[in-house]
Amino acid sequence: MRNIFGGKILFGLAGMMLFLAGCVLGQQAATTQKTLLHVFAYTPLQGSTPQDYANFKRATADMAGKIPGLRRVWVGKLREPLPASGEIREYGVAMEFDDLEALQVYAGHPAHSEWERAYEKVRLRGTTTLDIPGE
Fold first, then answer.
1. Beta carbons of 106 and 63 less than 8 angstroms apart
2. Domain residues of the chain, as ranges?
3. Beta bridge partners of 76
4. In CATH, what class is 36-133?
5. Residue 88: closest CA among 36, 48, 123
6. Which pLDDT score, from 0 to 100, does residue 33 have?
7. Tens digits of residue pLDDT in 2-45
8. Is the predicted pLDDT of residue 114 greater than 80, yes or no?
């Protein structure tokens, strides 16, 4: 009888902990970010190799550790192709910055120049770009 009662208390406490953890996570997920997203889509360059693309992905990821204010990056294929300026954009990059000033630092940073060399090997000139400041 004592073990049954003790087991129910243990399960009750575990359930309460899971419920409270879900509440905390739900509150965190409901907040908006105050950062800036720099997002662009591009058309892949015919003739670029899987190694060129791997180098581009690595160079993109490496910038997050080199450029102050660049928090995170995403690189990937668009879920749906995006027609733009007579071309079809198939791939995209998203970068999260602390603010507009960090985006400006990125534009003139030596790591950005290094990254551009890798980027030029995987895309046709011209992108569709959006900058989204958090509110």
1. yes
2. 1-31, 36-133
3. 92
4. alpha beta
5. 123
6. 80
7. 555 555 554 444 555 555 556 555 555 557 788 999 999 999 99
8. yes
Q: What are 76-97's pLDDT values in tens digits?
A: 999 999 999 899 999 999 999 9
Are the C-beta atoms of 124 and 84 separated by less than 8 Å?
no
Please spell the DSSP secondary structure of the chain, one letter per residue.
-HHHHHHHHHHHHHHHHHHHHHHHHHHHHTSPP-SEEEEEEEEEPTT--HHHHHHHHHHHHHHHHHSTTEEEEEEEEEEEEEEETTEEEEEEEEEEESSHHHHHHHHH-HHHHHHHHHHTTTEEEEEEEEEEE--
List all residues 6 or more positions away from 74 whose beta carbon is below 8 Å from its beta carbon. 92, 93, 94, 95
Token code pair at residue 106: 């990125």
Give the model's pLDDT for residue 112: 95
Our measurement of the distance from residue 82's CA atom to the centroid of its chain's CA atoms, rounded to an integer in Å, reads: 19
Please report where in the chains the tokens 């733009």 appear, as a residue: 84
- Cα gap 69→55, rounded to integer Å: 22
Which one, of 74, 65, 83, 62, lies nearest residue 37 by Cα? 74
92's tokens: 């995209």
